[in-house]
Give the backbone structure.
Amino acid sequence: MRLVAAGLPDAAMEARILIAGLLGLNSTEIFIGTDRVLAEDEALKIASAVERRLKREPVHRILGEREFYGMKLKLSDETLEPRPDTEILVDAVLPRLLRLSAGKGSVRVLDLGTGTGAIILALLKECPLALGVAADISQDALQTAYQNAQRLGLADRFSSVQSGWYEKIEGRFDIIVSNPPYIATCVVSELEPEVKDFDPRRALDGGPDGLDAYHAIAAGASGFLERDGIIGVEIGFDQKGSVTKIFEAAGYELEAAERDYGGNDRVLLFSLRKPGA
């Protein structure tokens, strides 16, 4: 297998994912269908995909979609490829969202820098009483997020706005979530080719110290977050202390911190500081 010879990690698993996706096979069929004779067009399709992977294009970019929180999400050039660690943010926010919806009957969620819509669509899927607004500076990303909402049957509770952070946002929200760019500018060029060459740079580059987005989110939240609301953000593995300080300086307190599957700090939840605290 050329992927193995090229030294790509997890080459065998990636080959199975590629072939299954390209041929429309499920996990069982890919393992028991080893004697299947490929049609000429199928063989050509697989050969083309292998060439793209050898140039370090990620498997799910080649397939054009990736699964996240049980949903198949369409990808595009200007969307970050959603990763499993971001599911931690959904898991952390969801119990609070359900509790608020049980008390209020309806809740509003704002997703800043939505990309594919992964986070907000997962929350809408799990909370039928939630209404979502997805914001992104990229029109391409917003179109992709809307297409994903349509595919999932969530478009009636989903709306979008082209906005740099809160620039064009209106109204108040019970939950504000974001997986913002948080990698320091000088580090972006050192990332694996699958990331630096194929994920949009503005979804990665968080400024000189990787914290630009958190300053913007914390500084502007007071005009859009309900008093009993929650802000949930994904962070880099070494940013818990610095991001917490940013939000504390803006009048918030850390309510919860969650680690990812590798044991690294990954998600922080903030609420407005209680009077006298």
User: Anything to note?
Assistant: The first helix runs from residue 2 to 5. The mean pLDDT is 93. Strands lie at 65-68, 71-74, 107-112, 130-136, 158-162, 173-178, 225-234, 252-259, 265-272.
